[in-house]
Every structure is written in C-alpha cells, then in structure tokens.
What we know:
Strand content of chain C: under 5%
Oligomer: heterotrimer
Number of helices of chain C: 17
Helix content of chain A: 25-40%
Number of strands of chain C: 2
Radius of gyration of chain A: 30 Å
Strand order of the largest sheet of chain C: 1-2
Amino acid sequence: xxxxxxxxxxxxxxxxxxxxxxxxxxxxxxxxxxxxxxxxxxxxxxxxxxxxxxxxxxxxxxxxxxxxxxxxxxxxxxxxxxxxxxxxxxxxxxxxxxxxxxxxxxxxxxxxxxxxxxxxxxxxxxxxxxxxxxxxxxxxxxxxxxxxxxxxxxxxxxxxxxxxxxxxxxxxxxxxxxxxxxxxxxxxxxxxxxxxxxxxxxxxxxxxxxxxxxxxxxxxxxxxxxxxxxxxxxxxxxxxxxxxxxxxxxxxxxxxxxxxxxxxxxxxxxxxxxxxxxxxxxxxxxxxxxxxxxxxxxxxxxxxxxxxxxxxxxxxxxxxxxxxxxxxxxxxxxxxxxxxxxxxxxxxxxxxxxxxxxxxxxxxxxxxxxxxxxxxxxxxxxxxxxxxxxxxxxxxxxxxxxxxxxxxxxxxxxxxxxxxxxxxxxxxxxxxxxxxxxxxxxxxxxxxxxxxxxxxxxxxxxxxxxxxxxxxxxxxxxxxxxxxxxxxxxxxxxxxx
Amino acid sequence: xxxxxxxxxxxxxxxxxxxxxxxxxxxxxxxxxxxxxxxxxxxxxxxxxxxxxxxxxxxxxxxxxxxxxxxxxxxxxxxxxxxxxxxxxxxxxxxxxxxxxxxxxxxxxxxxxxxxxxxxxxxxxxxxxxxxxxxxxxxxxxxxxxxxxxxxxxxxxxxxxxxxxxxxxxxxxxxxxxx
Amino acid sequence: xxxxxxxxxxxxxxxxxxxxxxxxxxxxxxxxxxxxxxxxxxxxxxxxxxxxxxxxxxxxxxxxxxxxxxxxxxxxxxxxxxxxxxxxxxxxxxxxxxxxxxxxxxxxxxxxxxxxxxxxxxxxxxxxxxxxxxxxxxxxxxxxxxxxxxxxxxxxxxxxxxxxxxxxxxxxxxxxxxxxxxxxxxxxxxxxxxxxxxxxxxxxxxxxxxxxxxxxxxxxxxxxxxxxxxxxxxxxxxxxxxxxxxxxxxxxxxxxxxxxxxxxxxxxxxxxxxxxxxxxxxxxxxxxxxxxxxxxxxxxxxxxxxxxxxxxxxxxxxxxxxxxxxxxxxxxxxxxxxxxxxxxxxxxxxxxxxxxxxxxxx
Lengths: 497, 179, 362
C-alpha cells in the first residue's frame, strides 16, 4: 500500500531494547487499590458504593455521568475502605476523588454480562457493551471508546485504523501485547469494525517492531478486510492525525474529527479491551504497563490492575539500579512528571520510566533563540514554534492563537530539537491552559453580570410594586375618607332636616 | 523661493482644513465608548476600584482619569482588553494575578440577621430571617460587601481552591538564563 | 533525587546540538578555505585575521560588562569569534590592523548587541561592518594585492609582515604587489569598452580563479574548499539547501541570460560563480540563521533575491562586488518574507481556513 509522508517529526533513539524482549508478567495482587473516578476525558464517574461495602472483581463501583464519560469497575474483590481525596496521577500533585479498596486476595468475580456475538448483534449494542465495560482509549488519550464506536451512525466511515505505532521511546507495552495476544487483538479489531460499519481495517505498526508485525500479520491473514501495514518509525507517527495522513494521504480538517475524512483510529490495547468486554464480559480492570529506564534494575512489561500504586510496580522490578534523574508516567516525549510514588495506575498509563544519564534533559539553562528554524522543520503540523513562543513570553495570547496555537498537538518535537533549550511546547501547554482559564473567568463575569442585572431588575420591580401598593392604599383610604365624609354629610342633613 | 513658500503654505492650509473637518465629522462619540467599557467591566458594583460603581468607573477610564488596571476582580485579562480598546499601552507589571476569592459563611457564628444577602449584588447568598446563610460559590464575585456588613464577622473571604479542573501548567520562565 | 526539578512538562529527551556546537561546526567548515587563504596571502593576513577575532571578543566582553550581564556564557558560545572570522574573510588581506578592529567593534556592537544580543539582530553583523568600512575607508578596503604564498620568494617575513599590518600597510615594496580584484578589474575594463573575456584573459586565468591565486579578500580565494565547507554544513543539517541553491542558481541564470544577449559585455555564469565572494556568500553569509527567513519557501525567495541583487550590483551598480549590499538589503526584507511565506498548517488551506472534505457527515 502506498504510504504518504508526514512533515517534520524527529527521530529520537528508541531505547526499546531495554524492555522489548521481556514477556508480559503478572504483577502480584497489591494490598490496596486506589481507583480514581476520573480516568478518562469527560465528566468524572459517580461512585455508587460507600465505605464498608464489599465489592467483587469487575463490579461497577461508579457509573458514567453524561454522554462523554465512562464507568469504573472494581479491579479485584475486597472491601471499600475509603471514598475521598487521594493523590491523582497528575503533574500538579493535586488530589482527586478516589475509591480505595482493600483486597481480600480471593479475586472473586462479580456476575459478568453474557458474551455478545459481535457478528449478529446490533452495532449499537456493541457500543453499549463497550461503554458499560468502561473501555477508554488506552494509548493515553482515554477518550471513551463507545463514543468513537458510535461515530459510524453520524459519519460516512470507510476505514478503521488500529494504532500499533507506539512511537514514544522506551515504551514496549503495545509491542508485547501484539506479540503475545495477536489473535485476540485481531478479533477485537473485527468487532470494532462491525460496530463502526467500515469496509476495511488497517493495523499500522512501526517498522521497529518486526516480531509484532509478523505475529499480527499471521493473525490477520485469515481475514480479507484486515491489513497490516508497516509504517516508518518516526515520532510522532502514533499521533492520530499524522498516522491517518501517512496511511490515507488525507489531513483531518482543523478543529474537526478524523471521522470527517471517513476514518476512526483506535489503539491496539483498546481493541484487546473491546475483545475482552464483548466476548467475555470482562470490564477494563487491568492493562499492560512498561516499567523501564536506565535507572530501573529490571525493565519489564507488567500486567497491572487499575489502581495499583506505582511504588508497587517499581518494587516488583527490583527498584532503582541508580539514582533516577527523572521519574515519568508515560513516554519521555509527552509523558508527565511523576510527583509521588503512591499515585495509582489508571486506564491511560502506558509507562513508568526512571531515566538516568540524560545528557541534555538535565541541562536546564535556556539561551536566546537564534532563529535557526529547526523547530519549524521539526513541527509535524506546519506551525512556526519560535514565533508562537515569542508571543506567549510577552503574554500576547491572541497573537499566539492567530499563529496557530490551537492546531498544536503538543508532541514536543520542537522542544526536542531546539539548540537553545527553549521550552517551546511547554510554553504552548501553558498558553492553552491560560486561555482556557481566562475564558472561564470571562464566562463567570458574564454570568455574574447577568445575576447582578437580574437582581437590580428584581429590586426595581419590588420597589415599583411597593409604590403601586402604596398608591392603591392611598386611593382606597381617600375613597374611604370621602365615603365617610359623604355619610357624615348625609347624617347632618337628616338631622337638620 | 516664492513658489516654495506658497506651495508649503497651501499644503499646510489644505491639511489643516482636512484635520478640522475630521475633528468635526469623524469624531468618536464619547458616550459610546463609556458604554462599551462599562459592558466590559464585571458589573457587580463592588467598589474596589474606588468609584461608586462600574458606571462611574467606566467614565473615568474612558476619560483617562483612571488607569486601565483599576479593576481587581477583572484582573490582568481585563486590563489588557481595556488597554487594547483604548489603544494605550498599559504597565501591567504591578498587577499580580490575584487568586480569585469567594465568600464563606462560618455557620457557628452566623445569627441569621439577613443583612448580608440583601447587600449581595449577584444574589449569591441564600438565607432567611433566623436561618443560617450560605454562599453559592459559583455566583460569588468576591467583592467583599457581605464581609463588611456582617455584625458577627462570620463571613470570610477564602481563596478559590486549585483543583484538577482549574489547574494549568505554570509559565516556564524559571528556566530562563539571565541574558 | 536530591532537589526536585522545577515543574515542567516533556519532552525529557533532547537532540544534542547546542548553540556553541553550531558555531563550532561552522568554524570547522570555514577552516580549509581560511587556511588556504592565509597560506596564499601570508603572515600579514594571519595577523589581520587574529587581530579581528581578538577585537570581536574584546568588543563583546566590553559590551556585556557595560550592560551588567555575565560575560562568560555569552562569550563562550562562539558567536563573537564566528562574526570576527567571517568579517576577516571579507577584508583585504593586507589591510591595516585598525580596519580589523573598527570592523569588529561595529559588527559586534552595532551589528548585534544594540539589537539585544544573539538572535535579535536584523542585519548580518559581519556585512554591516564590511559595508561601513567600505564606505568610510574606500582606499584601504579596495587595496588588494597579488597573492604571495608563504615560503615563496618575495613573501614578507614575520617582522616585515608586522610592519605591513601594524604600520600603515602601504609602502613601496607593497605597491608592486597591489592589484585590483578580479571583479574590479573586469568591471573597469568593461566600462572602458573591452570585451570581458579579453580583460579576464590578460590578467587571470580560470585555474587561478578556482584555486585562489587571484587578488581578492581572504574568503574569495578557493571556491572548491569553500564548497566543501558548505557541503559539510549541509551534511550536518545546520543549513538547508534552499538558500545556496536559489542564490547560486539565480546568479548563474542571470549571468547566462545576459551573456547570451551580449557575450562580449557580460561575463558568463561560471566566472560569476567562481569570482568574488559568491560561494562564501551563498553558503556562509546569506545562510546566517538569525537574519534569514524560517520557512523553506521564504528561504528560496531570500536566496533568489540575494542572487539577483548581487548580479545587478556587480553589473550595473557602482561597486564591483555586491555581496554585502545584497545580503543587507534582503535581510531588511526578511520579516516581510517571513510574514508572507508561513508554512501551511496541518488541516488548513494556505489561507488558514479549515480543509473541507467531500466525505462530510451524513
């Protein structure tokens, strides 16, 4: 199949050799599981259990709130010992609402929904089952997958693209999943294709994963409508927009969806989760995570229950072999700094990294921009990062937005290549957050203004009503007086007559 | 030489006449500007700027009697938009990003006198006679009028807490070299 | 971890080149041609070269001290040395020391620091200095000599060279070596009505032009070595092919065009490409990162503009060599070029509106 080129992009050293040959290991059951209610994009789930409740493995413990949301299930059987604030796996270190379960070691399953035959069921029912199982995008975006599966009803879709690129260095969880569970993934892929009603499916795998390509090709060989395509290993090949461009040669319209060009993209791990949910009724309660980095004793790929504290993973792989310079959740390009080892693992965590020996990442001194345009060459979205960053430094957010800030996908290629160590993508993330905060404040101001106006109006109405009432009373009194006077007059006349 | 003098004089005269017409016929109505500025202000009449309300404050800003940085609840964003509207450059270095604050009623001290909610410009306080009053956080603009009037000092201003919903990345300035 | 690092997001990996690394590679690329030029023009040229670079460092250090900024990081990044180096390459090799010093001070202070330092200047600092020198000291700046390679008979020894550079540079022994540069000679002859090829053949030959045995500034000598340096820069991905190719292409195209129209009055493309500061300018001067456009299209426009201006000034302008003026004029146009040649954003048309696909929603 003819592939198209993406603009820019960078080629960081993969460093996947550290863990790519480590088969998936089961992490032993931890004592406590901290399950956050917000592990997905959209409204947080609402807890339906309370402290002291006994829960079974796979039982729903929080329901979805609204259309863009996902339910949360108990990853193991045990007792709910806490429902409140707990450190969230978030760079801010702020707490989030979390259900804490003390496991009883029995791993007793709840009653799971019956297996659904994807090829006779209604596509809407497939999406419903995926929704009820709490499946979200497992490449890191954590968008509720059922919403994406329902896009087939609103858009004319022709291709399902399965993202097996895994372009971030160090991460090998998708690679191992494809090597070890190729058949299940392929079945999950076909289920999704049915739900979306697409004619063909492409599974894209970067060329640095030859074993995965072989395994998946074998699994897919039985089906005509599923093709495995090898894509060049280039960061950010795994970005939905750029993968679609490489495979179909079409660009997602700005501010639009990939569905606008007739395609939907899902991660391979999501496909696996869909397979488990539809054919076995198993909700999303575990995932594969790569624990890697130069400072880790034994880099591995672990199957971990959602809610397991990160400290347990690091402990299991022999902890640190040297003092780590950086602890990250996710990949080294777009991952987040890990603030506290007690934070739980969530549905979107694909890696825990302890990096050391970084030549330049620890060099935090920034020098002036020399307009070398390396960032312009590296940007896969065709933006001019040096101009945007200069505007943001002066807090000229409007200028930055006009230069294309909202089209930035945040891949970090610009900051990666900058010879002056300017924190380009970090400026953009700050600016996006600031613009949202300002919009929130403006919205609040408009609302409070409305309230203030309403109140003034109400006061005036009350005052006017009061005045009217007073006038009425005055008039009544005057009438009464006049009537009294008239009556008095009459009496006087009677007497005198 | 005569031609030089007369041509420049004519030019000056012509341009002067044009300017005169422009001053008369292209004049921007001051009233419209005041109204536009008033629309941009929060409108809660809190008085923190020193003027008796948002209307007089808008007039002062329009006539350049007050700086664009006069409104604390509006913050930096408002100062920037006012500066843009008036076409002036504003020195925003003094404006710290004030953390937004909302009122909070200490239920132990509240006596239910109803003085505060009658004063609140956005009706953010609920209460009735002899009943404990409470603040609706979303409607509170942090103007502080309730704090002033409460006879038992049971209302405090508290910072709006940072949560996962309103947190955003800090500006990466700390890394800059001093060059 | 001892102290927690400041809260910052990814990426946590970095590609290696830093700013000093870039400067070093450029200097490496210039070295072969510089060494050859120094060899051709002897010790006076070496002294001038060293004086110019030393003066650049001095100028930058003085400025930073006056401005109250820490001197070491800025001095250490190599940009001052590179500016001085490029300036020295465009000076007449036996010019007196004060030409180098004044030039260095102008380049660093007026060309770079008053704009705000590295990355903020609008014009190429070395070219600013060269133009100021050219206009202020036309005699010294157009006093070229025949190359007298080191160790050859007639080459001035170390003490004599000191007299050349630190004395007044001009003297009876030197006068016999003085000569106009290739372009200067050809231009004068053409103005006098001689066919350019004859004018060229009487004094120079193509071999000399290619291998640098001709009068001119240090950087005008060996086109092959400069080309080698340019290819090194391209290979190290420090510059892209857009500016050199469009500039050289434009010069060649215009030269070929006019040569075809009147073969006698207009030198052909190869002569233009090999003489003067063409190769130096195309690879090292016009490609200066700070003062050239950032997008690929912008670079092509910039390069073509430089090439056209070089040709126009050489052929019809008052000066035989147009590189410095051409580059400065195009530098002035760079912000405009940047504004109108922004790359197309993903998902949008060139005008900025979102793309529309036929397969819209049902």
